Amino acid sequence: MTRIRTRTRTPRRTRPDSPLANKPFRPLQNPYAPLEILSPTQIEQIHAASLHILENIGLEFLDDEALDYWQKAGATVNPATHHVRLDRGLVLELAAKAPAQFTLRARNPAHSLTIGGNYVNFATVGAVPYYTDLDHGRRPGTLADFQRMVKLAQVCGPIHVVEGLLVEPQDVPVDQRNLEKGLAVLTLSDKVMTTAAHGRVTAQDYVNMAAIVFGGLETIQRQPVFASNVNVNSPLRYDERMLGALLVYARHGQPCIITPFILAGAMGPVTLAGAIAQQNAEALAGVALTQLINPGVPVIYGGFTTNIEMQSGAPAFGTPEGALALVCGAQLARHYGLPYRGSGGLNTAKIPDAQAAQETQMSLWPAVMAHANIILHSAGWLESGLVCSLEKFILDVEGLAMMHRFLGGLEVNDDTLALGMIAGVGAGGHHLGTTHTLARFRDAFYHPILADRLSYDTWHEAGAWDAARRANQVAKQLLADYEEPDMDTAVREALQAYVAQRKRES
Question: Cα–Cα–Cα angle for 404, 341, 283, nearest 5°?
């Protein structure tokens, strides 16, 4: 659906060439040089500061099994306080075992992704408790909301990764939510997914469900099929839930996205240099632990450092400081030869307005130009990550589709230079009817999804719809047109039976 004809208030069907068509945009690579703001000397300064933190200050690992791994590796461990100090040589040796690039297998092979290098992959919003749309307003998320957003992620081509957390289904018992979410993502979508890092039991459920769908535990051990975001409980602490999941996922060959969550001025120093050094130390510790558990297992260096609003202490997203930290994190990940996770849609706005758009772009552009390999929260994020917005999701998809086009670059050759046409038209003519234009006009330029290009009078007579209202209608049409991807009947029944059994046991 490339635009809404508001005169009739009825959206058109999605064109085959629309950016919303569920067609593979992959492999999507960034052809431009990565944005870098740290000099080689500054990289070494932050690197040295991070190693000092690891060796002399240390971190807490609130899990006895994790402590045992560190102790056997020769780290300085205090079991009573869960405090660990890590030798720099050990950390760097372990981090070097992780691959610089790997493949995440999707249920539909056409949707499998490469993580690393210059590859760029966009993921939905994730882990938000509330949901909002123009029809019913802001409310606690439900399973129906979760399923609705999975369907939209499935049909929107610019979305590569379906966040397995998306919006929290608060109408489902807490100990059963991961089962319902896993079932929904695995059946309603055939794209790459992420999963929750909520302890050993939840992680093992996701591993078991994926094994049912992808052909067994040994199969997914050889070829990873999902990633999971593991947040550091900054400052300098890995809690038991995150560690439990990390241990399970790493053992089964599934990549963790090791992501310190640092708010400069609160969970890290107020200076960006200090906050980034702390982020780097925390990330390297988690990366190294995955390699102790399973040498060579894929792992992603995550960056999620931003600042607080000093007047209130609230987190601030879509800020220049957050953008600077994001770019620095990407440089550090490349320094260690690791894939990098960024965030693309961060903002503190309450509705999908100009503030939401401005702050989102302050996050998306740095993430792309820094060569982040997987960009979480790329579509749907509002209110500092508390809300998934239906309309913001579609607005963000427009931005991602435009980013796809931008990353496609341009072709320069005799045909595209069109010197013959320029000479034939001459001074004062036009190119509207040339054979060159007529052969290319259908796909010469990006076709907008939401952007209104009507004259003012025509737009006003048609109802004066704003972008959010058009996005609402686009979403509804996409959901009406949604078709569930095929799944083998025996696999579906086995997956449903597993979920039913685990729900009885909970």
Answer: 170
Q: Is the pLDDT of residue 5 over 60?
A: no
Q: What is the chain's alpha carbon radius of gyration, rounded to the nearest angstrom?
A: 24
User: Residue 404 pLDDT more than 90?
Assistant: yes
In our burial notation (b when 16+ CB lie closer than 10 A, e otherwise), range 385-408 reads: bebbbbbbbbbbbbbbbbbbeebe
Strand spans (E) along 280-399: 299-302, 304-308, 315-316, 340-343, 374-376, 381-382, 387-389
CA distance linking residue 104 with residue 111, whole number of Å: 9
Contact 380, 389 (CB under 8 A): yes
3-state DSSP assignment of residue 142: coil
As given in the structure block, the two tokens for residue 246 are 């990390």
**Lowest-pLDDT range of 46-55, 353-362, 374-383, 448-457:** 448-457
- Evaluate if residue 423 carries a pLDDT over 60: yes
**Which residue spans within 50-188 are E strands per DSSP?**
59-61, 76-78, 83-85, 101-104, 113-116, 121-122, 130-133, 137-140, 161-162
361: its two tokens: 């772009």
**pLDDT value, residue 7:** 30
Strand duo 76-78 + 83-85: pairing:
antiparallel
Q: Which residue has the tokens 């800020």?
A: 319
Q: In this model, does residue 1 exceed pLDDT 60?
A: no
What does DSSP assign to residue 255? Answer: P
Tens of pLDDT, residue by residue over 327-383, are 999 999 999 999 999 999 999 999 999 999 999 999 999 999 999 999 999 999 999
Tell me the C-alpha distance between 363 and 323, whole Å: 6
* Residue 490: CB atoms within 10 Å: 9
198: number of Cβ within 10 Å: 19
* Contact of 384 with 125, CB cutoff 8 Å: no
pLDDT above 70 (res 17) = no
By three-state DSSP, how is residue 51 classified?
helix
What's the whole-model pTM score? 0.95
Residue 505: Cβ-neighbour burial (10 angstroms; 0-12, 13-18, 19+)? exposed
Residue of 222, 208, 148, 215 whose CA lies nearest to 178: 208
3-state secondary structure 482-504: CCCCCCCHHHHHHHHHHHHHHHH
Write phi, then psi, for 305 (nearest 5 degrees).
-105, 130
Instruction: Write phi, then psi, for 179 (nearest 5 degrees).
Output: -70, -45
Helices and strands in the chain: count of H runs, count of E runs: 18, 22
pLDDT digits (tens, 9 = 90+) for 183-218: 999 999 999 999 999 999 999 999 999 999 999 999
Where does 119-267 have alpha helices with state H? 143-155, 177-188, 200-214, 217-222, 240-251
